[in-house]
Every structure is written in C-alpha cells, then in structure tokens.
Amino acid sequence: MHRKTGAQPSNAFSSLIIGGLIKINGVQVPLTLSKTISKPGKPLLASAECFANPGGLLPVRPPSKLPPPGNLCLHVSLEPERLGYGRVGSVYPLRIDDNNQYTLPSLVIKVAARRRSDDLAREAWFYEEMEDIQGVAIARCYGFFTAEIEQNSEVLDWAESDADCDEEEVDVRGEASPSEDDGDTDDTWNLYAWTDSDDLVMEEFSWEAVFKRNDERRKLREKLRQERRDKRARIIKPTRADPASVCNRSDKTFLSVLVLERLGDVMPIGVPLDAFKPDVREIYSDMGRFGIEHIDIRWRNILAAPAIDQSIVCPYHGHKHQWRVVDFDLSRKSNHLHSGIETAANGWLQTILDGLEEGYVVEPWD
Known about the structure:
The protein is α+β, with helices and mostly antiparallel strands. The chain is 21% helix and 22% strand. It is built from 5 helices and 15 strands. The chain has helices spanning 117-129, 156-163, 207-229, 277-288, 338-358, and strands spanning 13-24, 27-35, 44-45, 72-78, 84-85, 89-96, 107-112, 141-149, 153-155, 203-204, 253-261, 292-293, 302-304, 323-325, 332-333. Helix 4 packs antiparallel against helix 5 (338-358). It is globular.
C-alpha cells in the first residue's frame, strides 16, 4: 500500500490496471498496461526566413519540472458511458479503484481505435512537449500506456468503433479520416510520418502541398468509410507491421490508451461569448510559445477547465484560464514565429466563435 501523501505528479505511474475494457472468451478481465515512450511527428518548417524564428530553429522543450519518474501502479475501472469518439479513439470516464490512496483529479481515458496506436502515441508526445502548460492551457496528462493482448480478446471500444462505421460522420471528436497506417502500400500521401527525435527532418510548408494533402485525405476518408461499412469482425485481428510504430510486430496485437484529467463542457451555442474570447485566444498563445500549431481547431476541442478548481496560474498571463485545448494527434511543432502562430490561430478562432454566437458550428472541412 502506498501512503497518501498529497497530489501525485503526472509521471508517478509506470503501469495501469484497468477493468471493464476487454473480454477474453466472453469473460471480462482486467488488463495491465505499461507506460510507453511517445513519438514525435515531423515538424513544420517556415517557407520563408521572415516567418521563422531566428536561425530557423524549433523552440526547445523547457526542462521538466517533474520529479524523477515514479513506479506506482494505478488501478482503475472503465465507466461504460462513452464521453466522445473520433478518428483516433474514444474517451471514457475512469473510476479510481485504489481506495483513495492517491490524490488525483477526475480522470478520463482515451482508448486508441483499431490501428490507431501510433496516432495516440503522437498525441501523447505533444502533451509531454507542453508539460509546462498542463493544467494551465491543456489537460494534465498522466501517461501513454500500451499492452499486448491475446488474439481472442474483445475490446469494448473497438466494438463501439466498429458499430460507428455505418454512420456517415463521427459527431464528437472529429470525422472519420485516415491516419498514417490506413493505406496498405501507398505512403506517398503521408505528410505526418515520424522521424526519430534526434534526427528530425524538416518539411517545407506550401499551400500546394496542403491542397494536395487535403484532396488525398478526402479520397482516403471515403475509402476508410467504405472499409468500415464492411463491418469488420469484433474479434481483434493482428495490426499491420510498421517499422516506425510503437507497436511494430505484425504477429502481435496491441492496445494503447492515454490517461488525462477530466475536463468540462464545450462552449454554449447561440449566446454571446465575449467573456470567453480573450481567454481562448490566450491559451492558443500559450501553445504558440512552444511552437505548437494545433491544426485541429474545433469547437469540440475546446473544453471548460475542471469544475473543481485545480487550475494553475498561467505563467504568461498571470491568471487562471477558464478553458483547455484537447486532441493533438494532428498538431505540428513548427519554427514559425510565435506572432505568426497566434495570428493564424486567432483567425480561425474568430470564425468558430462568431459561428457559435450565431447558433451554428463551423468545422475545418466546411
């Protein structure tokens, strides 16, 4: 037993035992997952020197303020009511089963959908990159965990995701769209391929590449939807091998999850938002200081801070923010000037917020 000694740092847990997520031969069993190293995406390079940081360099990740990684095991159970779902996975509330021996906020778990472990590992990297503003502008992240599972296992979330395949559009965490591992052989469309963090390959930005990528993603999205309509079997199939994958053995099946603090609701629709607009712009400014371009700026990806005030005073603005940003699987780390990142984000935020006040939701693909 671990004595309750105060709030646990976000790196206190090296393993996770979760109940309610998988069944083997029809019987629900607990699953033990181990903390796993995340992976970065390919960074975005400014197309001209005037748009880039001095020397064209990416902002350096600040030194961690966390204590040395802990070796605790967190026991939790999955609550059956799904809070949201989308391209990368689904979000469920967690019940902590450790008899209150740890001081933790309310938690949720994001379960990677079938063949989406790499996307979730990429999202975990952005939470780590922005450690300084966890609990300030983004959710606190308690780790990325993976486990090898038996071939005859049934994963609750994967069954839910397969059931969603008949819907034309996912309604909570983004529309169904392809990720790096959706194609079988053709990777020419993949602008998000990983590289080792010590050997980052810069990608030069151009609108032509953006338009080309969007067109290819639309075609692949339709292909993916058609595949999902085929109603894959609920029993897990081996994941395809990928040399850059966190789970790269074709003869094994892996399950991946991300543990986060639970946040509040989305912004209201059809009411004035003047009281919220400055705060939302500030949290995007906070992310821009780290060179992070969210990319997936959407109404459903901006959530209220926890109802119980556990927020940290923002080191850049001197007050506690009311909102948090989530979903970083499409984000990019760039060498663009902070002012340029702010300007780009504010332009899209204005469109979204104006739409909400008028009573409708603007999506990136609209």
